[in-house]
Amino acid sequence: MTVTDRPATYREVFAEPTFRTLFVARTLAISANSLQIFALSVLVYASTGSPLLSALAFGAGFLPQFAGGLLLGSLTDRLPARPLIVAGYAVEAALAATLCLAGLPVVVNLLLVAAVACFTPVFSGAASKVIAERLTGDAYVLGRSLTSMSSSAAQLLGLAGGGVAVATLGARPALLVAAVCHLLAAAAVRIGLPADRGDAGSKTGGAVRDSWTGAISMLTNRTIRRLLLAQWLPSAFVAGSEALLVAYAARRGFAPGAGAILMAAPAVGMLIGNFAVGRLLRPSVRERLSAPLIILLGTPLITLLAPLPLPLVAAVLTLAGTGFAYGLGLQREFLEAAPADRLGQLFALLSTGLMALQGVGPLVFGALAELTAPATAIAAAGIATSLVAVPVHLRRRVG
Prior knowledge:
The relative contact order is 0.15. This protein starts with 9 loop residues before the first helix and ends with a helix. α6 packs antiparallel against α8, α9 packs antiparallel against α10 and α16 packs antiparallel against α20 (374-387). It folds into 2 domains: 8-189, MFS general substrate transporter like domains (Growth Hormone, Chain: A); 221-399, Growth Hormone, Chain: A. By secondary structure, it is mostly helical. Helix content is 79%, strand content 0%. It has 21 helices and no strands. The radius of gyration is 21 Å and the shape is globular.
């Protein structure tokens, strides 16, 4: 094993104080977001009785990120990272408090959620840029692995905490809990992240025009576009399948609450996969396994066409979730392809596509499920996911 092919260790990653700070803050913020989404959905449904508005409350923060990432992404490279990230968490805290205390109409609340979501790629892109600048080599890849693992754990924690908070305190007080978590995240970044300087002086023209120009230049770069699509498409397809798990469980006649178990299973698999692939395998092995892991992410979903018992369905979804670790094998090439003066904007663009397409995936496969059946649509999502492995494998052979 060469020195450059030696896998990094968690000790090396957490030895970087900047990563520790952003890791803790991001975990708090994701938990708070999951809690907020759940509490707001409950609040909207309780006040309107409308499943559609409740669903919109759940997804209102996703699709607007598309516009924000395209039109505001260059701010990640123009402005200092610390105040930008702190402002992002502070705005999220203000939003949660407003949703709780202001008593605004449902439509206004949803518009506020959408407006704040437009800026989310900017804040998240700035944090990703800082991590990429502070962690080098395989430590960066392992740092991305830890970030993915913490995201899964934080989402599970936020949903579980949201259920407990709503049951014990009520939906509105639960939103205040989310606001406090966001404030803690902002404080952690303000105290623990060193000050830096933005690069506004090296940029010309307005931020919106610069963002649009940068996004177009990166999307027309064949290498960057391929790596973005390789990370966007499987997530979108799998999100489409996960959105159907409640309907699948009901159609199969599983006990009430089974849908929640099935929705948690891929997140558990993601935790396992990111640990095993990120920590136990050499960088060169990870990169060779990108395409096989994409196949692992998709093909188990096809087996849901069979009338499997609930424990086996949960096991299949957990196995499929381990395939999310395929992204670790793309990170070195992705970082090497990034333009030095638009590193933050590239991460904002990655986040934009992930969020936007994860909103589109459920619509596409949900429509297919309406025409066929949930199991059929889930299997179709699995097939579509597996097909992404073909260009990833062929490109690696050419490279």
